[in-house]
């Protein structure tokens, strides 16, 4: 039989083209903030970095996608109390606000409104001819779901008391420490130092206590003996030292030491041989973004004079802050 002819080879199929690589899209975390100075503002956490809320007041915050945030904060420090003229007794320093420096881990979710409250620093107490006025307490700082779960609540420092007049007078007591109320990593503030006492043993003012939160303000100096005593040193806070109290001086005004917080004013005498104490140093504040928050104000000085002038005013407490990063 004759041989069958060979079948022709099938033609090769062309190679299919490679599928294109589609780009990966990343949704950046954008916060929308309504509050003091924002109506509204937007903030990109990945591009702009941490958000610092430092103006006292209430903020509402939303986000466009889920984001694991770290929330930190400090409460307002208490104001220092004013000194007295006729008793020579000085005002107490304000307490330091509680703080959360390590931070709280919070998962921020879209379609949820969060609320941040930044506490106001306590106003200072003015000095008096007879009775010094107390300083005001610092405001609470917090972060929560609006009308819901609380993640961080930091109490403000108490205001320092004013110096009292009369033979049974006592100096202004130091303000209470701000309390850490809600949070895993929050810490309390430091107590303010009491003012210098004219009529009792231990006439020098007390220095304030340090703390992990805002340091308390030092007590003001009394005017027991010429030239009057120096104000107490402000308490340290998280490695930040409080300011030193100013020295007493005869017949002229004299301020307390500069510090991370407000410092109490020295008393001003109208008589060249009258003694006036120095103002208390302010408490050390919490350092967020190279600015200090939450330290208590120093106490105002007492004065020994019958010819004019009044006790020194206390220093104002520093306001708080909330940080989201």
Question: What is the tally of beta strands?
Answer: 15
User: Could you spell the SSE succession in H and E letters?
Assistant: EEHEEEEEEEEEEEEE
Spans where pLDDT lies below 50 across 5 or more residues? 250-261
Q: Helical stretch count?
A: 1
Which strand-content bin applies to the residues?
Answer: 15-25%
Q: Helical content, roughly?
A: under 10%
Shape: rod-shaped
Structural class designation:
mainly beta
Looking at how many chains there are and whether they match, the oligomeric state comes to single chain
Intertermini distance: 90 Å
**Strand count, sense and closure of the main sheet?**
7 strands, antiparallel
Alpha carbon gyration radius: 30 Å
Strand arrangement across the biggest beta sheet: 2-1-4-7-8-9-10
Q: Which whole number gives the mean pLDDT? A: 77
Give an overview in words.
- The chain has 325 residues and is mostly beta strands.
- 1% of the residues lie in helices and 22% in strands.
- It has one helix spanning 45-48, and strands at 30-35, 38-44, 51-53, 57-63, 67-74, 99-108, 114-118, 141-145, 150-154, 180-182, 249-250, 275-276, 286-288, 291-293, 321-324.
- The radius of gyration is 30 Å and the shape is rod-shaped.
């Amino acid at each position: 039989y004759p041989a069958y002819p060979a079948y022709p080879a099938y033609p090769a199929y062309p190679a299919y083209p490679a599928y294109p690589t589609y780009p990966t899209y990343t949704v950046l975390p954008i916060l929308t903030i309504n509050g003091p100075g924002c109506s509204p503002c937007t903030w990109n956490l990945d591009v702009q970095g941490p958000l610092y809320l430092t103006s006292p007041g209430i903020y509402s915050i939303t986000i466009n996608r889920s984001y694991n945030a770290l929330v930190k904060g400090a409460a307002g420090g208490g104001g220092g109390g004013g000194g007295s003229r006729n008793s020579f007794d000085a005002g107490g320093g304000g307490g330091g606000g509680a703080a959360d420096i390590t931070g709280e881990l919070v998962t921020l979710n879209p379609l949820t409104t969060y609320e941040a409250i930044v506490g106001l620093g306590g106003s200072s107490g003015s000095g008096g001819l007879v009775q010094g006025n107390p300083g005001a307490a610092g405001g609470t700082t917090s972060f929560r779901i609006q009308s819901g779960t609380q993640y961080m609540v930091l109490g403000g420092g108490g205001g320092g008391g004013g110096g009292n007049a009369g033979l049974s007078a006592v100096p202004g007591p130091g303000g209470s420490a701000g309390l850490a109320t809600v949070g895993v990593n929050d810490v309390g503030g430091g107590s303010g130092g009491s003012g210098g006492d004219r009529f009792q043993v231990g006439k020098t003012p007390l220095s304030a206590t340090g703390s992990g939160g805002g340091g308390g303000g030092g007590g003001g100096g009394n005017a027991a003996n010429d030239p009057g005593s120096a104000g107490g040193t402000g308490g340290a806070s998280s490695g930040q030292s409080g300011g030193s109290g100013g020295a007493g001086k005869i017949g002229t005004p004299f301020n307390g030491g500069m510090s991370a917080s407000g410092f109490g004013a020295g008393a001003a005498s109208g008589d060249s041989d009258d003694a006036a104490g120095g103002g208390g140093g302010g408490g050390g504040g919490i350092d967020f973004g190279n600015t200090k928050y939450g330290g208590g104000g120093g106490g105002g000085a007492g004065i020994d004079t019958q010819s004019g002038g009044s006790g020194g005013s206390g220093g104002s407490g520093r306001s708080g802050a909330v940080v989201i990063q």
